[in-house]
Amino acid sequence: MLDLSMNSLSGPIPPELGKLEVLMFVNFSHNQFSGAIPVSIASMQSLTMFDVSYNFLEGSIPKGIRNASAEWFLHNKDLCGDLIGISPCNLPLADHRRKHQKIILSIGLPMFAAAISVVVACVIAFFICRKKVSQRTDDVNKRDVFSVWSFDGKMAFEDIINATDNFDEKHCIGEGSSGIVYKAELPDEQVVAVKKLPWRR
Fold it and tell me: Which residues bind ATP (predicted)?
């Protein structure tokens, strides 16, 4: 029995291993072996287990390995063979590329969709915030037009007197039965209409 599993061994599997004809159990799983499986392994007549799963092996699995199981060769870089559960070696290059493309698409598409969803959500949130800010600004502007009345009455009156040059006729924009309307441009550059009611005793 030769059990070298989980030892972080790397490099190719030595072809000299095939000379150990009486060896029955070989476990090279969970290592970093690379390259092809030596053809000499098939000459080991006493071999009942040859586990090389979870490595970086590639190429064809030698024919003639006694009682070979697909589980011995799973999770490698690119092994192929005639075992059920292992990709056949006679696949055209285009099929191998298609297989890799499917793997890439199965991983890449969900990530791409998630990224697009995040971008769309950010854009929607930006426009919603911008709309709220715009509405808030409009409300403030609308309130500012009449904010003069929230100040001290004397200050507001002085601003109106100065803006209309003491209700000079050149600022008059209309006249009705209840009074004269003047245009007043306040110090904060807001323009308002002011109606001067006739004085009565």
Answer: 196
